[in-house]
Write a structure and sequence with these properties.
This protein is an all-alpha fold. It has helices spanning about 1-25, 25-70, 80-95, 105-120, 120-135, 140-155, 160-175, 180-195, 195-210, 220-235. Helix content is about 80%, strand content about 0%.
């Protein structure tokens, strides 16, 4: 009897479902079509986005190859000039298609700035580096761009701006940032060149304290050893 009741109950449920689907057939069909369209749209969108991202990284790879080829050329040759023109055109195209807060656009801008720096065009290089520094979050590219921009301003004879950028590397990325020892040493070196001996000494002492004494948490650094040499000279 129990088995028969269960079978009767199942049939009753099946009949109700059949009645529901029959009554709402058109509505369910429309909903199904809409859902299918949404799913297809999402799949297409994801595919397009993935394809676009892949193209940008491929373009960046080609740009890096161009940069390496140019670096090996004679700067006085016509081949170099045409190579630079082709490189800049490719870099501009990639930068225009990828915002600077994304890796391909930021890296392409850095490469273009690097080329300007190597050609002695420090103002143009600095503008490129600063744009990456400002657009990127607290990433390696941002800290690298800040360091390179500071080097540009040093070459332009603007030690005040260079000091500001080196200090930003410390303030923004911390004493344990990847470029912290180099930035600290540059700060001390610039203060020393400007005749600010006490400020230079203080910076070098901070650097050696952090990066010559493992118990303070900093890994040994060549810049700390160089700072130590400056401190020895001050003591003499």
């Amino acid at each position: 009897m129990e088995k028969e009741k269960n079978l009767t109950g199942s049939e009753r449920v099946e009949n109700k479902l059949n009645a529901f689907f029959g009554k709402n057939r058109k509505v369910l069909l429309i909903v199904g079509i809409v859902l299918l369209a949404v799913i297809v749209g999402l799949c297409i969108g994801l595919g397009v986005a993935q394809s676009s991202t892949e193209k940008k990284f491929n373009a960046l790879s080609e740009l890096e190859t161009q940069y390496a080829d140019i670096s090996a050329m004679d700067e006085t040759s016509s081949e170099y000039s045409s190579g630079v023109s082709a490189f800049n055109a490719a870099a501009d195209e990639l930068i225009s298609s990828s915002s600077l807060d994304k890796y391909p656009g930021a890296k392409a801008t850095l490469l273009k700035a690097d080329l300007a720096f190597s050609s002695g065009d420090y103002s143009v290089a600095a503008d490129g580096y600063i744009s990456v520094k400002d657009a990127q979050a607290d990433s390696y590219l941002a800290s690298l761009a800040a360091m390179n921009a500071a080097a540009c301003y040093e070459n332009l004879g603007d030690n005040t701006t260079a000091l500001s950028l080196y200090n930003e590397v410390i303030d923004r990325f911390g004493d344990n940032g990847v470029f912290a020892p180099k930035a600290m040493f540059a700060i001390g070196r610039l203060y020393d060149a400007m005749g600010e001996t006490e400020l230079a000494r203080a910076e070098f002492e901070t650097l050696t304290g952090l990066y010559l004494n493992p118990e303070n948490g900093g890994n040994p650094s060549e810049y700390a050893r160089m700072a130590e040499a400056y401190l020895i000279n001050y003591a003499e």
